[in-house]
User: Which sequence fits this backbone?
């Protein structure tokens, strides 16, 4: 009796294990597929503009809570923004850059060297528009 | 009352009467809005009710003007709040907005409501139902974020 159990149990568990294994793997693949993470490649010229004028408030290290909540540029590359969020943030940036209202007035007065030049503003605006458009058609 | 005091109060009263005639166009009201968000998107009943009571006076064409909204100088503030609110987001025009603008609006709804920046602090004073609890805020924020996450699924 005990000999039969000793033989049969490993055989059964062996069979069960290998019939379930592909299903487990399939589930994992599916769960990855249903929640794709999006990230944006930031070219060097754009990164240097962001570093100069935006990242001070709009990154995970920022002490400006509101600035960080409204836009965290780190999440452009770490996949933490959904596709919808990314499109929303890019459109928000486009609006703000069109109005030329960022960085805020007080910040511009305090740090004149961090003001976006007209050239930088338009380069960043164009890039933001293209990225938003690309994401929407993806 | 001394003569001086009386003169003071009469001049205040006179000034209040004079400012009433300052012309200012009233924000347009429309009852029938085929492009309204709730004609195009299914939203859970309680979230819809909260948005209608806490947001619609400034963020739609369906404005309920209370009696004091006809009295200057309060009128000036109310009209300017409504005009600003509609310029930023008008739920009555939802279906006319392009999808990225809808995304931007939903993201802003989430952050403004979460950060207690909306409704404006002054609004619930006369509209107590618009005073949102933490739980209510979370419901609106979750709705906006979920809607945004699914906006580009098709």
Assistant:
């Amino acid at each position: 009796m005990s000999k039969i159990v000793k033989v049969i149990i490993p055989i059964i568990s062996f069979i069960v294990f290998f019939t379930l294994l592909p299903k487990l793997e399939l589930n994992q693949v599916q769960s990855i597929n249903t929640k794709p993470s999006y990230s944006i490649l930031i070219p060097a010229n754009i990164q240097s503009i962001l570093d100069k004028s935006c990242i001070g408030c709009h990154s995970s290290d920022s002490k400006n809570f509101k600035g960080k909540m409204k836009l965290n540029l780190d999440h452009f590359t770490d996949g933490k923004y959904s596709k919808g969020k990314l499109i929303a943030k890019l459109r928000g940036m486009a609006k703000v850059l069109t109005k030329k209202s960022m960085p805020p007035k007080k910040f511009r007065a305090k740090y004149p060297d961090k003001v976006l030049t007209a050239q930088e503003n338009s380069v960043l605006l164009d890039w933001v528009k293209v990225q938003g458009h690309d994401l929407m058609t993806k | 009352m001394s003569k001086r005091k009386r003169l003071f109060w009469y001049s205040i009263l006179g000034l209040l009467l004079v400012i009433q005639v300052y012309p200012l166009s009233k924000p347009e009201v429309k009852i029938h809005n085929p492009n309204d968000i709730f004609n195009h998107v299914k939203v859970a009943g309680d979230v819809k009710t909260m948005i209608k009571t806490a947001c619609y006076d400034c963020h739609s064409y369906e404005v309920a003007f209370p009696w004091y909204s006809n009295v200057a100088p309060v009128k000036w503030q109310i009209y300017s709040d409504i005009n600003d609110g509609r310029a930023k987001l008008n739920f009555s025009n939802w279906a006319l907005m392009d999808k990225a603008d809808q995304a931007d609006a939903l993201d802003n709804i989430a952050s403004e409501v979460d950060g207690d920046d909306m409704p404006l602090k002054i609004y619930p004073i006369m509209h107590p139902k618009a005073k949102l609890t933490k739980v209510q805020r979370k419901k609106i924020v979750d709705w906006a974020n979920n809607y945004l996450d699914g906006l580009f699924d098709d």
